[in-house]
Amino acid sequence: MTSTENNNNGSDETQKTKLIFEDADESMYDGGDNNADVADDITSADYYFDSYSHFGIHEEMLKDVVRTKCYQDVIYKNKFLIKDKIVLDVGAGTGILSLFCAKAGAAHVYAVECSQMADTAKEIVKSNGFSDVITVLKGKIEEIELPVPKVDVIISEWMGYFLLYENMLDTVLYARDKWLVDGGIVLPDKASLYLTAIEDAHYKDDKVEFWDDVYGFDMSCIKRKAITEPLVDTVDGNQIVTDSKMLKTMDISKMASGDASFTAPFKLVAQRNDHIHALVAYFDVSFTMCHKKMGFSTGPKSRATHWKQTVLYLEDVLTICEGETITGSMTIAQNKKNPRDVDIKLNYSLNGQHCKISRTQLYRMR
């Protein structure tokens, strides 16, 4: 793994993804969090909108060429989707998607942004001469009122780490149900989550096993937390040991809010003899309403994005031979205390020549 830390230019502490590993305790899912403490009361929900007030996180996203250029190409090369249409930009940020739409001939664009960046977006819109086409509305989608009863297009860059972290998808679905005209479109309209497995001995030794012997002292009790440190990072494609499995495809134009919580089986087939230290999740996004299907991937073998990949370290090191399979299931659900966080339950088994194991691990992204 490329040992880079999240660099959100000032937003790192508010946007950090943490995986909280616990034993297989069903209380995570039944609302009884026996390990909760005072610190749990301060979560990403408290900082979410404030973090997007800082220009640094927007700079990072705008400089993500894969992300921003894809949206630009979708809009400019498929103007029939936008021209003379009323567009709602959900979570507009600096207003870049609204500007693309205005330039593509939208009749009007309503750019909704809850953070203080809304005030800056108004300045940007004015500076670029689009004040008559773009109206920036400051507030939460769930609380504002649009000046129009319906919109023709909803566009949003709602995807978070692990696709679902931050739960902005629910906001898009709320907007869709309330304002999208019958026959209207959502951009993007498809998103798929994938899983694969990697060898990552060096990084795991450096970040996790380190605690076994710290200047001659046993600090192994910290390993539980060490394995839960922010693991949004860039994975080298050469580290991939197995094939990839699609866990879930979501149709944003049709799905219900609850569909983002699910259990999906997986079967990963080893492509070579190796050790496995972690599972890695990534996602693809598609715009299927274009003349020609467009989209991008955040996978390890694709051009890097600011989403990178999400690494879930396993408690055990698995020794696997080519052709052997890791089978299991992954359950993903909104955290009940803070719906912007994601609870992950991983069941996995390997019945191989050199390794036989079956285990359940729980993680929490927050």
Automatic annotation (TrEMBL):
Signal sequence residues: none
Keywords annotated in UniProt: Methyltransferase, Nucleus, S-adenosyl-L-methionine, Transferase
This protein's record includes keyword Transferase: yes
Main location: nucleus
Gene Ontology BP annotations: methylation
Gene Ontology cellular component list: nucleus
Pfam families per the UniProt record, alphabetical: Methyltransf_25, PRMT_C
Compartmental location: Nucleus
Domain Methyltransferase, chain residue ranges per copy: 87-182
Sample GO molecular function, one term: protein-arginine N-methyltransferase activity
Keyword match Nucleus: yes
Protein origin, superkingdom: Eukaryota
InterPro entries assigned to the protein according to its UniProt record, in alphabetical order: Arg_MeTrfase (IPR025799), Methyltransf_25 (IPR041698), PRMT_dom (IPR055135)
Annotated ranges, domain Protein arginine N-methyltransferase: 189-353
Protein name as it appears in the record: Protein arginine N-methyltransferase
Native organism: Arabidopsis thaliana x Arabidopsis arenosa
